[in-house]
Write a structure and sequence with these properties.
alpha/beta, 13% strand, elongated
C-alpha cells in the first residue's frame, strides 16, 4: 500500500497526464452540451427574427375579386416575387375574360335585334322632326303589335257570321240531298235528327279547322270596337291634339319590347321539336286573353295618362328647370353591388330599377293553357331575353262555354293562368336611346364614362 504513493510521487507528471486524458473528454462533453443549448436557442431566436423580417418584406395578401357583385372576395397570403405576381395577373386576366364573355352573352341575349319603332325619334329628334316623329310613333304603335301577333301565328276563332254561313250551307246541302228546297223543308223526325247531327258536325268541323289553322287564339276583332292588338294589349290611341311628349314615346318603346319578349316566349312554348309552330289543338298555350305592361318606375302610376288606360302617364317632375333637375339627380354607379329589396311588394326577386346596370319592367299575362303543360310556358318565359315569372295564379274555366264561343282547344284540360313577369333591360344598350329626361329620372349619367387608357 505504501508503495503506491511513493510511485505516484516519483512519476507525478505521468499520473497528471493520465488523469487529464481520462477526465478531459467527460468534462468537455458536459461543458459543450450546456454551451450548445445556449448557442442553439440564440441561433433559433435570430433565425425566427430574420424570417419574420423577410416575411414582412416578401409576403403579401392577394385578393381575388368576387365572381358576383356583392360577393366576398377570396384572399390568399403568398410570397411576393415575380412568379407569384405574374400568376396573380394571369388569374385576374382569366376572371376578367370570363366576366366579359358572360356579360357579352347577356348583352347579346338582351339587346340583339331590338326593333326601334321610329327612326330618328330617340334619343332626341331634330328640331324639324320634334313634332312629326312623336305623331308617327302614335300612328304606328297599333300596327306593330298586330305584326307581333303574326309572328306566333295567332288567329281568331270562327265568328258567329262564319258559323251561320256554315250551318246554312250544311242545311242546304242536306235538303238538296233529300230533293227538297228551303221552301219545302218539313222533315220527318228521323230526318230532323239527321239534320241536327249534320249541323253539329259542321259546327265542330268549323271549330276544328280554326284550331288547326293557327297556333294560338286571340279575341276576334269583329266582336269589339277596337283592333285585335288593342284588345289583347290594352292599347289606346293618343287622345290629345298635341304631340305625345318624348318621355311618353320612350315608355311606349320600352313597353313594346316587353310585349315582344313575352310574345317570343309564347312562340317558343308553342314550337314543336321540328321547329314548326304547333296548332292550337296540340300547343300548350291555347289563347291569349291579355298582356298588360305596367308603367315605368319614373312615371306617375297614381294618375291616368291621356290614353285613359293608366298604362301611359307623364313623368313626375318637381321643376321645369333642367339644370336644377340635373343637380338633384344623383347618377348611380354601375360598378357598385346591386341591393335587392326582399320586402318589395311588386316582386319576390326584390329587383328595383335603382341600380346602374339595368331597368326593370313588369307585365301581366293572362292565357288559357293546358294544365299539365304550364311548365312549358314557364320555362319558355324564363329562357327568353332575361325574363322571370314572379307570380302565377291558376283559375278554372268553363270549357263548355269556351267551345260554344268558338274556341276548340283539343282534348287537353285547360285552365286560365295569370302570370306576373319581370323583364330586365341593360343600360349598356338602352342608354343610347334614352331621352335626356328619362336619364335624369333614372340616375343615368348624361355622358358615357370614358374607357380607361390601356397604355
Amino acid at each position: 500500500m505504501n508503495a503506491i504513493p511513493s510511485i505516484i510521487k516519483s512519476n507525478l507528471a505521468i499520473v497528471i497526464c493520465t488523469i487529464i486524458v481520462v477526465v478531459a473528454p467527460i468534462a468537455c462533453f458536459v461543458v459543450s452540451t450546456s454551451m450548445n443549448k445556449s448557442v442553439r436557442e440564440g441561433l433559433e431566436s435570430r433565425v425566427r427574427g430574420s424570417y419574420n423580417d423577410l416575411r414582412k418584406l416578401g409576403v403579401t395578401t392577394y385578393e381575388i375579386p368576387a365572381a358576383l357583385p356583392g360577393g366576398q372576395p377570396v384572399e390568399v397570403e403568398f410570397v411576393l416575387n415575380t412568379n407569384s405576381v405574374e400568376e396573380y395577373k394571369r388569374i385576374l386576366e382569366r376572371l376578367k375574360a370570363g366576366a366579359d364573355h358572360v356579360y357579352g352573352d347577356i348583352l347579346d341575349e338582351n339587346g340583339a335585334d331590338r326593333l326601334v319603332l321610329v327612326d330618328g325619334l330617340f334619343p332626341e329628334p331634330s328640331a324639324l322632326q320634334a313634332t312629326v316623329k312623336p305623331f308617327e310613333m302614335d300612328q304606328r304603335y297599333p300596327a306593330v303589335h298586330e305584326e307581333l301577333l303574326k309572328t306566333i301565328n295567332a288567329g281568331e276563332p270562327p265568328t258567329p257570321l262564319d258559323l251561320l254561313d256554315v250551318l246554312k250551307g250544311a242545311e242546304s246541302d242536306y235538303l238538296t240531298s233529300l230533293g227538297r228546297g228551303e221552301e219545302d223543308a218539313a222533315l220527318t223526325e228521323d230526318e230532323q235528327e239527321e239534320l241536327d247531327r249534320r249541323l253539329r258536325q259542321a259546327r265542330l268541323d268549323l271549330y276544328h279547322e280554326g284550331a288547326t289553322r293557327c297556333s294560338v287564339f286571340v279575341a276576334p276583332a269583329e266582336h269589339l270596337a277596337v283592333s285585335t292588338a288593342e284588345s289583347v294589349f290594352g292599347l289606346q290611341p293618343w287622345a290629345l291634339d298635341k304631340a305625345p311628349p318624348l318621355t311618353q314615346c320612350y315608355d311606349w318603346q320600352e313597353a313594346y319590347w316587353v310585349r315582344s319578349d313575352i310574345i317570343e316566349a309564347i312562340g317558343r312554348a308553342n314550337t314543336g321539336r321540328d321547329g314548326e309552330m304547333l296548332p292550337v289543338a296540340w300547343a300548350p298555350v291555347k289563347r291569349i286573353e291579355a298582356l298588360i305592361v305596367v308603367g315605368a318606375a319614373e312615371f306617375d302610376l297614381s294618375t291616368r295618362g291621356a290614353s285613359g288606360t293608366g298604362e301611359f302617364t307623364e313623368m313626375r317632375t318637381t321643376t321645369t328647370d333642367r339644370d336644377e333637375v340635373e343637380i338633384i339627380s344623383v347618377p348611380i354607379d354601375p360598378s357598385e353591388a346591386i341591393d335587392f329589396d326582399a320586402g318589395l311588394e311588386e316582386s319576390l326577386t326584390g329587383r328595383e330599377t335603382e341600380n346602374g346596370l339595368y331597368d326593370v319592367r313588369r307585365a301581366q299575362l293572362v292565357v288559357h293553357v293546358a294544365s299539365d303543360r304550364i311548365g312549358d310556358l314557364l320555362a319558355a318565359v324564363n329562357q327568353t331575353r332575361l325574363m322571370t315569372v314572379t307570380d302565377i295564379q291558376i283559375n278554372k274555366i268553363d270549357q263548355g262555354q269556351i267551345l260554344r264561343d268558338g274556341y276548340l282547344y283539343g282534348e287537353e284540360h285547360v285552365v286560365e293562368a295569370v302570370l306576373s313577369i319581370e323583364c330586365l333591360y341593360f343600360r349598356e344598350w338602352t342608354r343610347d336611346l334614352m331621352p335626356t329626361e328619362v336619364k335624369i329620372a333614372r340616375g343615368v349619367p348624361l355622358e358615357r364614362p370614358t374607357e380607361p387608357d390601356e397604355g
